Amino acid sequence: MKESEVPQDKSNLESASFRELCYAVDENGEYITANSTGWDPKTIALNNAIEDIKERIENAKNKVLNGQTSPIEYYMEVHKMDLPILASYAGLWQWQAKRHFKPSVFRKLSTKTLCKYAEVFNITVEQLQDINK
Fold it and tell me: Which of 3.40.50, 1.10.3210, 1.10.3470, 1.10.260 would CATH assign to domain 51-129?
């Protein structure tokens, strides 16, 4: 695209004073970099992804409050992780981390394991054990 055609639509980037770096062609046909404040289709996709994340977090919180899962799953969603990433950061096998989602198993976790999770989520063990703190 030409430098004059680089999208400057309103987006989340604009409100945070960020710019996205794009490649464009100048009047001499040379590739240059140009700043863009956003592009409507990208903004729509990003907003949809953010809404999906918020919904997943809310669902996980409700599951914790209803005793269907442990706070580990909630904090995993809050930190935009999936099971493989969580297990890797905690130094566990995926099946172990998934097992820790069970409230009955979570209540029996050792202090050492709880500390691992708290460190991964950058919270205290008390916050890990009670999502309302």
Answer: 1.10.260
